[in-house]
């Protein structure tokens, strides 16, 4: 622990402090530039859709932070004479372990790249993937964030996002099953519902066309199941479905058509259900 | 940071701008050529079926975009003296991680190639694969898109499409189970349904032959289950099935044949079901 | 872009056109030869069973197409000076990724080879594999096609076909469970069914021997379950099973033997089921 | 395409024909020798159990066919100057893909070897493995065949046969659960069943010892469950179980002991179950 | 076992004791420094949010312990002339086994790094991951600890934390389903509940806005299901949900609106449910 | 096929016969020695527990057979000039495939070694592992055999035995749930059962201590569930549990305490459950 | 087999005997030293918690046995001139197979190390991991042992212990759901239970604070579900939960508040539930 060592240590610490400050400054400035850049593009010739813009703004900042911090880390390690490149390129057991351990990281970044490049989804879209459903609130280089109805934030590594279901691209369809009693006048029920459905688009602007009864999808034990199909604007199928359910219920009530409770036919026998004296029927 | 560096940076930026413009132009021109090419082929000697045409048009454009952008990316990186080839060929830990991480990408493209080459499905087909069902709206080099009845767009990497169920190639079959009460005259029920089925093909053009009763597929607790089998045009089995269900219900009503509710036979015992004083039967 | 380049490009395009025409001609001629070859073998000394013939005809054509197109592709690529062999043999990261990505392809072809070689199933067999059931309509080098009752075509990579259940090789067995009430005369029921079963083979030619009652397989809450076992020709167990169910039902009706509905024994208590004033029993 | 090429092609075709004929002859002769060999061993000093003999006969033929055809294939390929050895030993991308793709094949053969060597099961045994149950009808080098009760032939690669349940080696046990009503005289029921069980071995030769009542295995909501345990000859536990069920049912009927239906205790309340006017209890 | 060996052994033991003492001291001192450092930062210019502070304090200590102990272990091993570096770099079979076995360790550390770096969650957050839910109580280099409501401590390797659901970042939503009887005046029920919901935010400060009835989400067999949606502060959705349930119940009682019990419609038949003498209807 | 070849073939066959005879003799002699060795150890100074002895006897024979047969196989192959060592050491594609295919074999043997070395279970223990439960009847080098109650022999590769549940090492506990009616005098029921439990250890020698009532583990819809806990000798928990169930049932009957049937509270409404004319409530 | 060979064999056997005796002695002595060492540490300056002591004692002995036996095995093998080091370092096919096969072993030991190092659990803790729950009775180098309530010993390789749930570290919580009838005075029920809960901590010393009613967690079909939350000492949540259930039941009985049975509302219709003559409503 001679003085030279102390001097070298001091120098290193100074360098580290300088690197950290530099990194902070670069990120602050970079973030501003990104905001301005996407702000201006709205009027320039290279306009991009508003849908992609939020995505790209967030992604650019995210990428900037990763790159700056990664560079800073490598610079700091080199300050202490740790050669990252050699470390990573080194083969042997450690290399094998690192290579296997790091493959998830590489897969996440490749997947992230394709999510952006293929425009699979943008910030604000409602998607389902990797077992969760919700609105995309951030697409990053390594992870994406999705917010459910219930407010939970799901943080998903991009490599887990193999298959995506996007609800925000195309028109949706509200599918409502209505149960009609076997005992009621089935054709009148169909006619009453059809009349109702014809009136609905005028009251619900998110309906794209007149909903229709597809037909009898099930002859269930206690009821006939009719299926109603209504095309709606994207993401409007939930409120439209709830509205159809309510209006159908009220209209059927008005017309005195029965929505059936479960039925049962009961035979009562007089024996005790036991076998005393061969009494069993 | 000497002036030479600034000049080189300026040059690089100019080159990048040039590459981006070039890529945009190539894609626009290429897209036009592809449209024209497939448009003309309709009358030329190398006609292809309409079914494959939409698929190939979309695929060609998709491939064009990938190739152009990839080339542009490599050119830009080389502008900044990053040798992509060496990067990819480099072995060591990083190489191992990249190799493992990228295998999904390679598998996607190989699978995509075989989907096209073997004509597993075309744009517009109704297929089931990887846990989703819907109409194919795009077959790309890396991913395919499928749209469900409900309007959701499923984006599926081709590597996930291992096993495909195609509903659009061959005739479909509507299979309807009708329940008949044990108490009714079973043979008359069979006869009534058979008469109805014979009349149906004249009313439903998508029925390919007279539907038939296969027989008794279940002696369930409360009912006898008859199965009706009706061959239909591809994808018409759903509406035909719904029509059969409705008509069978109405006809059985007319003829007074019972569609059974769940039955139960009840024995009432007089004790309280408790054991006070050995009262239990 | 000197004239020499244009000339070389022209030459290349001519070569490509020539290769494509050649490939088309080879496939057409090859297909004819295959048809003739298998047609003639019917009378020659090297006869093969009809069952394998359809399989081999389809497979030969399928293989021809793959080989011709693959050769054509390699020739076209070499026209543009892309050496496929070197590409495939190349090690490094890309090689690793391709090697892993392509292993599915190799596994598919190996599996396909063994399906044919071991005669696991032929075109026309009814098989169950990889979660689907249906008739085999094509066995290819890489994928096989199976058609379900419902008309869906399942396209299955051969590598997914690990375990096969073949219904078309051996006689099948219809297994029918008949429920008899605890209250009925159980031995008479058994005797009545046995008499019926003895009459059946004369009426159903696909029954191979007299069906028999195996015995009481369950003493269920509401009924005694008898199991009937009937050996049939391959694939005839479904219609035979349906016939047995129908005839047993009709015969038991005739003989006044009860097919039981679910039973329940009910004790009614006079309290309200609440605890007001210690009223609970 | 000079005449020399034609001559070489002709020679090659002649060689192929010769190889095919040779292979066919070798297989026919080999099969005969195998049949004779195992036929004679029955009296020779190296006797093997009948159980293993069928297995080994089938396996020997199966191995013979694989070896001959494989040799023939290699010879034919070498006729056309394709060096199989070099192909297989070749490293690089193709080698990697083939190596991974072929590992299933190697695993199948290793597993197959151990099935025979450890005598896990023989042709004719009833086994359960890889999700199927049935009689073994063939053990091959790569796959084994199992036939279910229903007549389906399951073709299972030996590599899938990791865990085997063999029903044919040791005595089996019929386990029958009998339900007795809470209301009946439980000890008398036990005594009646015990008397019956003592009589049974004289009537059923496949019972190895007197069956016994293990005791009360469940106090279920509506019934007491007694378990009967009967040791039987291998594979006889199914018929013995059915016989016990039938005899116990008849005996309990004779003795007037109740096999209980599901019970329920019902409290009727006078309110409507709604809350109008605080009417709820 | 000459004296020299004994001396070397003695020296080694002394060195080990010295290393252990040194490690203990370094950890004690380091822990103090870490505590002071984060304590001071509260007023310095580089302030960090309180949320991250607890996380970083715990993590820093955790990392310190790992690094010190690992260094000590290597030093001790080298005392006994075991070269750890060579051991790890050594290829061959042992290296392969170690490399594969250690990949989990590497993956854990990489994942742990990204959890901190991307601020996926902090100590004190309520998260769901890897099948458990609870409050984060420690984020370490290799494992994180989560405490459930029930007091169980879950110790999860960071590599298992692929997908995280964080409940503490954003506002939550209480979703309550209320069942209304088909027989009641549905619109009045809706109105009564709406009035109640309007009053609630004044009484519950954790409600962020007035809760609302989304609509009819199900027409169930016995009841109409209304869904109530209430935005709340993070983690307050559980108590808010319980409060809404209670208040809705009490209000509906007051207003005499029925919360429905399961319904059933019963047809009583006079026959015995048997078939004696064709008596069946 | 010159005479020299015939002579060498003859020599080879003679050698093979000699090897086979030698192997048979070695196995017979070795088996005897093993039997004697373990027989004598019973009195020698190196006594081993009886529990391990059966295991080691079976294992030693099993290992002997493997080693002898493997050596014989290698010797026979070398007779025909096939160098097994070179074959196995050979790299390339075949080596890769064999290496992957054989890893299961290696894993089985390593696992088998640890089962013996760590004394996880011995022949005769009742264990649960790999989804099966039963008595261990053989522990081999590669596979172990387990026999279920029903007599099935499960043959399990040791590599599948990752996690073992051993029932034969320590005392077991019989856990019996008793249901008591809400309507009965709950504290008296508890007292009656407690009295019974105190009497039981004197009658059942396999009970290790007085069983106790743990308490109320569930307030189920129709009953209160009490849990009884009884420590027993290993494997005696099944018969003890059955005995407790029977005695509790009889004692509760004696004392007139009710074991409850499922209860239901029924409200009868007078309407028809339909909505004709607003008739609903 | 010359005399020299016999002499060398004799020497080898003598050496083996010597090694075995030495190993036995080393283990006996080592075990004693370990016992003494941990015994003394209780008063020394390097005290460790009692919780870790049992763990470390067992682990030290376990490690000693492994190390001694492994060394002995290597020494014995070298006696017979088998070089273990060369065997393990050998590459080629065998090496590949061994490397893959042995990775589980390495993973087990690495995991075991971290279980101890991170103090995830100690001997005596109640933990849940790898699908089993119970008290830890041994933590070894390769496997750990867990004993369930029922007395089963689970032997779990450390590599299977990825995620651990430790119940013994922190206070537990008893969570009890109480059902209250819709018809009862809900607020009085709440008040009665609250009074009871306030009295309980004085009677149950393992309760850490006054339990509280969280609120209404479900409006179920037949009942309102209240949840009670009680913090307890570690592992005391089960007995506390049972006590709460019992006391709540008794108190509600006293106060005449109903614990509801399942309810049903029944509409009786007069028709037969069939359709004869349009008789259906």
Output the keywords.
homoheptamer; 281 residues; alpha+beta; 5-stranded antiparallel sheet; 3-stranded antiparallel sheet; 9 strands
**What is the C-alpha radius of gyration of chain A, as a whole number of Å?**
32 Å
- Strand segment tally of chain A: 9
Helix content of chain A: 40-55%
Distance between the termini of chain A: 104 Å
> Largest interface, with Cβ-Cβ < 8 Å?
A-B, 64 and 56 residues
Short summary:
The structure is a homoheptamer of 281-residue chains. Chain A is of the alpha+beta class and 281 residues long. Chain A has helices at 3-41, 50-79, 84-89, 92-117, 186-203, 237-254; strands at residues 126-129, 132-139, 143-147, 153-157, 164-166, 172-180, 212-219, 224-232, 263-269.
What does the model show?
Seven copies of one chain form a homoheptamer. By secondary structure, chain A is of the alpha+beta class. The first copy, chain A, is 49% helix and 21% strand. Chain A has six helices and nine strands; from the N terminus they run ααααββββββαββαβ. In chain A, the strands form two sheets. A five-stranded antiparallel beta sheet of chain A has the order 4-3-2-1-5. A three-stranded antiparallel beta sheet of chain A has the order 6-8-7. The longest helix of chain A has 39 residues, at 3-41. The radius of gyration of chain A is 32 Å and the shape is elongated. Residues 276-281 of chain A have low confidence and may be disordered. Chains A and B meet through helix 4, strand 5, strand 6, strand 7 and strand 8 of A and helix 4, strand 4, strand 6, helix 6 and strand 9 of B. Strand 9 (263-269) of chain A pairs parallel with strand 9 of chain B, so a sheet runs across the interface.
């Amino acid at each position: 622990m001679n003085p030279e060592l102390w001097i070298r240590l001091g120098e290193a610490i100074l360098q580290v402090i300088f690197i950290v400050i530099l990194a902070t400054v670069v990120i602050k400035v970079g973030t501003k530039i990104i905001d301005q850049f996407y702000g201006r593009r709205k009027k320039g010739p290279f306009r991009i859709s508003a849908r992609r813009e939020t995505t790209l703004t967030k992604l650019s900042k995210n990428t900037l932070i990763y790159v700056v911090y990664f560079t800073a880390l490598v610079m700091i390690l080199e300050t202490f004479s740790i050669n990252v490149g050699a470390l990573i390129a080194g083969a042997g057991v450690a290399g094998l372990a690192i290579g296997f351990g790091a493959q998830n990281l590489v897969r996440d970044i490749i997947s992230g790249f394709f999510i952006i490049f293929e425009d699979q989804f943008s910030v604000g879209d409602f998607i389902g993937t990797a077992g969760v459903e919700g609105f995309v609130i951030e697409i990053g280089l390594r992870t994406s964030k999705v917010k459910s109805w219930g407010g939970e934030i799901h943080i998903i590594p991009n490599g887990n996002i193999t298959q995506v279901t996007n609800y925000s691209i195309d028109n949706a369809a509200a599918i409502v099953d209505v149960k009609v009693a076997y005992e009621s006048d089935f054709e009148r029920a169909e006619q009453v519902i059809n009349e109702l459905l014809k009136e609905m688009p005028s009251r619900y602007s998110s309906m794209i066309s007149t909903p229709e009864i597809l037909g009898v999808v099930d002859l269930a034990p206690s009821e006939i199941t009719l299926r109603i199909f209504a095309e709606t604007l994207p993401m409007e199928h939930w409120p439209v479905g709830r509205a159809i359910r309510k209006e159908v219920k009220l209209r059927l009530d008005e017309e005195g058509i029965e929505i059936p409770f479960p039925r049962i036919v009961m035979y009562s026998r007089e024996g005790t259900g036991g076998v005393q004296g061969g009494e069993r029927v």
